[in-house]
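Researcher: Let's continue the batch. This sequence belongs to Helix-turn-helix transcriptional regulator, and it's 112 residues. Same format as the previous ones, please.
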Amino acid sequence: MIQNYIENANFEDTGFAYTLSLISGKHKMVILYCLMEFETVRFNELKRYLKTISDKTLSTNLKELEADKLIVRTEYPQIPPKVEYTLSERGKTLMTVLDQLCVWGEENRLIE
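Model: Same format as before. Here are the structure tokens for Helix-turn-helix transcriptional regulator:
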């Protein structure tokens, strides 16, 4: 019976797979966590927080998070341009999950 279930199951159709698709990659969870901690953050502040990320990679990640409606990008019409990023309401609902990942990591870190 379980063999039949496994053969017919499709991991890509699960909520787990969908969530992973939203936060996958090296930087997305860190970006979201930064926005949770500091609320409103500008591009260069994110770059300093992430340290080794390139402008292109950060820009791509922010665009993807915005397209997935996890963050809000606010552009102010001034010179020089000012852009701020915040968590969307949808993004805030994901923070409970990310926070639990942090708690688990702290409680289960293997000390060498």
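Researcher: Any comment?
Model: Strands lie at 41-42, 71-76, 82-87.
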